[in-house]
Amino acid sequence: MRPKNIEEVVGQQNLVGPGKIIRRMVDAKLLSSMILYGPPGTGKTSIASAIAGSTKYAFRMLNAATDSKKELEVVAEEAKMSGTVILLLDEIHRLTKPKQDFLLPHLESGRIILIGATTENPYIAINPAIRSRTQIFEVKPLTEDDIKIAIERALSDKTNGLGSYNVALTSDASTHLCRATNGDLRSALNALELAVRSTTPENGSQEIKISLPIIEECLQHKALVQDKDGDAHYDVISAFQKSIRGSDTDAALHYLARLLASGDLISVNRRLLTIAYEDIGLANPPAAARTVDAVTAAEKIGLPEARIPLAVAVIDLCLSPKSNSAINAIDGALADINRGGYGDVPAHLKDAHYQGAKILGHGTDYLYPHDYPHDWIPQQYLPNPIKNKSYYEPKDNGRYETVLKEQYARLKKMQKSKK
To answer: Where would I find the AAA+ ATPase domain in this sequence (predicted)?
Structure first.
């Protein structure tokens, strides 16, 4: 089911959609080497295959960890003869220096268009010599709608998919297949294939009925609850956050258990990090930091042990003082930006590190705070139209933010006294 051309790629439309960067490269036939990084099953290999199919260049696949320099030499010889070869190099973060040194001149000549694939952060895991010769693109987990499109294609494609089978996929099974794979299309298609090929038609019928229990078995991932609208997943996550926000420890642990019983570690981790900064925030910053540590530990050890640091974090957040002042402050600032009319940056704050800035009056009246007592001096920072605007409204729900409130008020008063 891999796409044969760029139009068939499912998801990643921010990269391959009309007018987007990779589509532009393909349409103009001006390909450059690139690194695609992101979680498994999100389309890195598919994008490489689609690029090759759309450009008609030869396409080869190697693994940086397991394939030797000799295999790279074979690709290089082919590139010399045929002109250009697109090389998908999986696990590029494990490329050794001898292999890298061999590849570099071929990348610079353009004979090999390298598409490196990795689940690691390339800015940390990949050698600078390779990074400097490639463009780096992040691929993200597919949405449920993306996976649903791919599943429907697989069920209707008689050549490459499961179209030769008479499959009836129930709506709740389809929803669970799209949702429980957390954006990993490979896992979704593998589970679907296993379900179809291992299910016998009932009572002599030719129809293969794929129900929710079958998909759960093939995915090894239980649904939260069987509901006709498919909203239970979001309902439980919503109840989880609202229980922590409301400081109900027992309810929060109950909903945590329901999420973990379904195997949905990813949603728990993402939601906990959001809660820590949205609902606890400045009332107790150390709790947010401890939540990051707990989530990191959960990701490293996985289920079932992950339940332990996550339970610690949930109890910690439930019993912590709460404040949503930070999210309110940034949302207020964004609202002003979206409305427009917020004015120009004051001249004394503009960049003065270039020739001619002084003539324009940029930065000339700037007061450097570190030159003054207590490293502070009153001056205007906001644009004129909103110079008296206040976004942050501190709360008294924790010692830390109480101190911030006092400091915020004191600085505001001193700033106004200058006028």
So the answer is: 30-142
